[in-house]
Amino acid sequence: MEGAGKTTQMQRIQVWLQGLMDTPVIITREPGGTLLGQELRHLLLEYHGEEPIQDRAELFMYAADRAQHVEGFLKPLLDQGNMILCDRYTDSTIAYQGYGRGLDLSLINQLNQIATNSLESDLTLWLDVDVELGLARTRTRGKIDRIEQANLEFHQRVQQGFKLLAQANPDRIIPINGMLNIDQVTENIKLILSQKLRKWGCLI
Ligand code: Z5A
Question: Which residue in 70, 136, 163, 178 is deepest, having the highest Cβ count within 10 Å?
Fold first, then answer.
């Protein structure tokens, strides 16, 4: 969710994880994890041309960003054994373009499949906050991007989308209460990650 604390938490968790293991822990994001992606991010979030970006065009732009990110960045780094923390991935497209914009969910699933070449996240942490609180947090930055400008109902549908995704994928998607204070959220994430890393044999 917007303003849920993803950026704040990812930086803290990277430092913590890096202290626990020799494997390099790399941070990235979508959109914008590659040079092409940075251009697409700018268009997606800052475009103020006369004609609005059509919903399906927006969907394909996120898919293009992801395809570039997976082939040019994520896969090569994973193949070298790195651990990657990614700020948003396929679930965001289902929540925003599917539940938010109302585009066909099976089309989005297909497109996600094509864009990722079937590369799935091992674990998704969903930082959930009250929609209005999250938006209020982002507004303290002073600059509101194109998607943040969408109405409240849009953001509520997005939240509902994440909720349904979490219910349908309980092993992969773990909800985190993003309304607690920053330190408490970090502690809760560490707890979940410690359990998972032990299970995966990454920690002794
Ligand atoms: N999008 C899409 O539509 N489809 C897709 O497929 C993908 C993305 C991949 C990407 O922007 C946009 O693209 C996004 C979805 C859409 N929509 N928008 N806009 P983004 O991911 O870069 O931006 P964002 O989601 O809006 O993130 P953000 O605004 O940067 O928020 P954040 O990273 O979650 O939060 P933060 O920067 O860490 O914290 C925000 C403020 O809250 C900051 O002042 C913090 O100090 C404060 N904060 C953080 N945590 C707390 C707690 N726990 N308590 C109090 N205050 C806190």
Answer: 178
Tell me how far the alpha carbon of residue 137 lies from the centroid of ligand 1, in angstroms. 9
Cβ–ligand 1 distance for 100 under 6 Å, the answer: no
Q: In sequence order, which ranges of the chain are alpha helices (DSSP H)? A: 6-20, 35-46, 55-69, 75-79, 90-93, 105-116, 131-139, 152-168, 182-199
What sign does the CA torsion over 5, 8, 9, 14 have?
positive
**pLDDT given at position 56:** 97
List, for residues 103-131, the tens digit of each pLDDT value: 999 999 999 999 999 999 999 999 999 99
Residue 6 near ligand 1, beta carbon < 6 Å: yes
CB 163 within 8 A of CB 135: no
